[in-house]
Amino acid sequence: MAYAGPKPADSDLKVLQDLVNKLVVEGRAVEVAEMDRKAAEAFYTKNPVNGQYIYEKKEPPASVESLTIVTIPEWTVSVSATKDFVANTKEVGGVEVVRFNHRESKQELEVCFEMRASPPGDSTAASSKAEASKPAAATPTLKADNVPDASNAIFEAFIEALKRTRSDVQLSPQDLESLKSVSSLKINVILTALKNSAYGAGFTSHLKK
User: Is residue 57 in a domain?
Assistant: First the structure.
């Protein structure tokens, strides 16, 4: 999606960050539907979600006749290559937007952000820390340049938090691998949906698929 506007002010970093974290904390439903390609293209051309069409810059190959459509109502819509999804956005950690990279000649506005274990100001996370038997470490900063790496960082942060707060839970290496395999697909979808919502607001995430 081309961005033809000026570079946003630094104050817009916090505005976008609060918008994304609000979506996470609210636990918005993630809806999934299988649709005939031609029907989906016709429907979302007339009914975009938050100004967004189902494709970003590239369309699936012409041979693809059925699409998996992922929607967060009133926020974002996209086509996904996977069919395994989280139920709502609350299963994803928080986001800290750190800077904008504006490329006027390419009509691009890149949003650089870092994933955190929980949204800033999340009362649930604060309560969990207060009840933990061990002092909680500072919220880790998760740096990544693509969706799979961000997904891995979120999973590792979750496991570290689990070890600190639930010493009674013991997971074998096989359990961890199985849990990571299942959760990574779900986290990837939510990260992609959040990235698409940034596109819908006129921004570009620095996370790549």
Answer: yes
